[in-house]
Design a protein that fits this description.
Two copies of one chain form a homodimer. Chain A is an all-alpha fold. The first copy, chain A, folds into two domains: 56 residues, Arc Repressor Mutant, subunit A, CATH 1.10.10.60; 145 residues, Tetracycline Repressor, domain 2 (Orthogonal Bundle). The first copy, chain A, has nine helices and no strands. The longest helix of chain A has 30 residues. The relative contact order of chain A is 0.10. At the A-B interface, helix 8 and helix 9 of A face helix 8 and helix 9 of B. The structure holds a DNA duplex.
Chain lengths: 218, 218
DNA sequence: ACTCCTTCTTACTCCGGAGTAAGTTTACTT
DNA sequence: AAGTAAACTTACTCCGGAGTAAGAAGGAGT
């Protein structure tokens, strides 16, 4: 009757990945607290004690999800931004394209990282904050290069201000990318590369000119 | 010993506001699920059944918080953006300043709206989505005016594309503002007006030129 | 074909916290 | 000062779901 493949036994590493896959899906759909370990176990085709044996507590399970997904995302962006191109603008464009591509291809992962993990507190929050900071740092560096910060006088009072400005811009840029990623998911046919270009179009000119002190109302 | 003011009885409307104040604080600090009704009751100096009598269930309490805080925020931004100035740029600047000012003056409210409510699902999520959409719509209108969309041919294939571009920019702008608000909270001495100007400096030139089709790599 | 380790399950315990039944006290009104 | 409606409390019930004790069954090596 049932062609049930008679649950095969699998090595621990493989099962763990299956569990994490299931956990990401459920956490993504329900959120941390509304998720029950029973549901994760069910979706992973495994009993609850095995889940606890391999992944520890519920919080540790969530933490493991965040760690794995954040690594994937950071790697994806980082390696794109370290691409052959010289100009910071081109590297920024590559990083953004990689980011929007990742989100489009891994919705669940994105939702868990962006919507669920942010509201968490404790160790998980710090974990995510660190991943985000890594991305922001990468962007900050590109922003500083674009702003031609090297032209700024060293040690001058304007130097610290420009450093702060670069940090602010990087945060704004990452936030804009987050929001655009959500937006792109609601627009059928929107390509990652196109989304990245929209953002570049919006900020690129302003970015180059900021290094020279030009801007709104000047 | 204790100059305990001997718990005065208060009219319902007043108590309700006290309860909502307490609820916002606790939800902000702990998040929805980690918050217990007992703790809200304690902080509001009230017994739990009274809390249930006035505000209904836990979910309804949270919903009431979101409704009140979202209204305040949307009003604050909306009335600033409807300021006397004619130019869309100036109105955008006013709206942003009001927004950063609100966040600086109402951290708890902001945290509840931005970090806690987003991860929620169901009625609350829709509520928040509606408030956010209202802000995005306001911004979209300003963006379209800045882009000199009126110069676009009506009905042309480029028209729909420009509308979409305006929506994308508005989403990016709101997301950037969100992230900058968080950033500003971590930087001592950062003034709302200064934060608003940073963002305007970054996007204003690009915004004006987008209407003419100029941008990154062109 | 017997060990022995790893994989895996059934069947529980236990508690935090949502929600409530029933009653008590204060302050207006006539 | 008596009546009454609103404000308010003590002291519970009850359940979902986190976490676990105890053991079963498959497979690799000898």
């Amino acid at each position: 009757m049932h062609p049930e493949p008679s649950r095969k036994r699998l090595p621990r590493k493989v099962r763990e990945q299956q569990m994490l896959d299931a956990a990401v899906q459920v956490f993504s759909a329900r959120g941390f607290h509304a998720t029950s370990m029973d549901e994760i176990a069910e979706r992973a085709q495994v009993s609850k004690p095995l889940l606890y044996l391999y992944l520890g507590s519920k919080e540790e399970t969530f933490s493991a999800c965040i760690a794995r997904e954040a690594d994937r995302l950071v790697d994806s962006i980082g390696s794109a931004a370290r691409s052959p191109a010289d100009e910071p603008g081109e590297r920024l464009m590559q990083g953004l394209t990689a980011f929007f591509g990742y989100v489009a291809a891994n919705r669940d992962s994105w939702v868990v990282l962006y919507q669920q993990a942010r509201s968490q507190s404790g160790a998980v929050a710090e974990q995510l904050a660190r991943a985000r900071a890594e991305i922001v740092d990468t962007v900050t560096e590109l922003v500083r290069q674009s702003m031609e910060l090297d032209q700024a006088r060293e040690g001058g009072s304007g130097y610290a201000a420009l450093r702060r400005e670069a940090a602010a811009i990087a945060h704004a840029l990452v936030g804009a990318a987050d929001a655009l990623a959500d937006w792109a998911l609601t627009v059928p046919g929107e390509q990652p590369e196109a989304t990245a270009r929209r953002l570049m179009n919006l900020i690129w000119i302003g970015l180059e000119r900021r290094g020279k002190g030009e801007g709104y109302g000047s």
